[in-house]
Design brief:
Length: 174
């Protein structure tokens, strides 16, 4: 799959494989990269392994779910937009929704969502990926505003290109 070699890990919980076939369609509630497992199940396992609630949450899943980086916006199927939204936005949103209530109750929590520079400066290629990362950026900024004054923070990082295997393969194909 496009995501081979990535891991999903929670501090105190053993790494789980992040190996999603590029064409896999995941229903809402399923964590991209952990086939057959719901976000709620992963969150519950993390809490059990930690012996308490998640206090620091870093959502760093990313990558183009369908390899559309070289396609122009009009060439990308709607299904590809949906796949990228599921892979790059929904897992993070769902983990935040599961973690925030406990963070607010404890009066402490830190959330870091990793978006992308293309969320703020899109280019004409990979629109499905950049749109999903823009949604994550918008969600995180809105979440941060809603958490003012409760000692729970939400921040978003927007890094530029990161030289992972998929980027290197793409560069070699060009």
């Amino acid at each position: 799959g496009e995501f081979s070699g990535y891991t999903f890990s929670v501090e105190g919980l053993a790494d789980m494989p992040f190996d999603t076939p590029a064409a896999q369609q995941l229903p809402a509630g399923w964590l991209a990269g952990v086939p057959g497992r719901t976000v709620a199940a992963v969150h519950a396992e993390a809490c059990a392994a930690l012996g308490g609630n998640v206090e620091i949450l870093i959502n760093n899943a990313g990558g183009n779910a369908r390899g559309n980086t070289s396609k122009k916006p009009a060439e990308i199927d709607v299904e590809d937009f949906v796949a990228n939204y599921r892979a790059n936005t929904l897992g993070a949103v769902q983990l935040c929704q599961l973690s925030v209530p406990d963070m607010v109750a404890a009066k402490f929590g830190r959330i870091v969502n990793v978006s992308s520079a293309v969320a703020m400066q899109p280019n004409y290629m990979g629109t499905d990926y950049s749109a999903a990362k823009a949604a994550l950026l918008n969600y995180t900024v809105s979440l941060a505003g809603s958490l003012r004054g409760v000692n729970v923070t939400a921040n978003v990082l927007t890094p530029g290109i990161i030289m992972v295997d998929g980027v290197l393969r793409f560069g070699r194909q060009r």
